[in-house]
């Protein structure tokens, strides 16, 4: 058997493996799609696979969903779109600036200043709340401002102890994702509730949920964009510095256009996280700003899980992400090719 024949057989085996994996990946989506067009009897009566052959398609689940019988579909879809896009854009913008600063500038944070921040924050809250009898919300604000001011002021002093560098700061950002989400969601709910007592309503509001998602997404944005910025050639920035170009103009006019594929990829990943997030929306919303995962989870009744309704709602939540991933992936590929040509 010749080498050419072996290569040809290898390609066919590779193609067969890819097709098998494609079928394995797309079958759950196909099953959700056909289930959304089944009647209740068609779902509980046993597995059927091919429309018009095994079962007669019905639009009853879609009619109930779009008519509002299964919840405020249109309001939920609009809320998910607004919150997802705005939180992803803000997180990508802020996280990109932080990642660029951690790549191009050297930071030295004294560990003692960080410990001072923690001690003053917790101790100040306990003193304000238990001794001075100040409300919990105001105690949180006063303690945070005092701790931040003392930490910044002490960092300028010659304090003993180890000094944290850029890699330590990046690890601190990424470590925020190691905590169980239920802990952060419950803590945010308690804090938002206390803020509402002083007139700053954050529960079931656009601002409250968007801020939570921005904080939730910043670690992954900083981690991803840091790698993209490290791969950029620094010679272009150095040439601009020779011409006395300000740092902010270098970042906006040179760095961001060069890292366009990375920004698009990071935005896509962030939007996928925010769009599919369930726990924060469950804790921090009641009705007005509920998102699509809450709507999908609510498609049941006293009779149990109604899979035809759940499938229709899940398909609505999946389709926008599939469409946007296809559109943005084309821009991302074109940007990568353009960078390779240059």
UniProtKB/TrEMBL annotation:
Give start and end of each ABC transmembrane type-1 domain: 125-328
Any idea which UniProt keywords this protein has? Cell membrane, Membrane, Transmembrane, Transmembrane helix, Transport
The residues that cross the membrane are: 12-33, 77-102, 114-132, 138-157, 169-193, 205-225, 263-287, 307-328
Annotated membrane topology is:
Multi-pass membrane protein
InterPro entries, A to Z: BP-dep_ABC_trans_perm, MetI-like, MetI-like_sf
- From the Swiss-Prot or TrEMBL record, state where the protein is found: Cell membrane
PROSITE patterns found in the cross-reference section:
ABC_TM1
Per the record, its GO cellular-component terms are:
plasma membrane
Predominant localisation class = membrane
* Family per record: Belongs to the binding-protein-dependent transport system permease family.
Name by which UniProt lists this protein: ABC transporter permease
In which organism is this protein found? Answer: Paramesorhizobium deserti
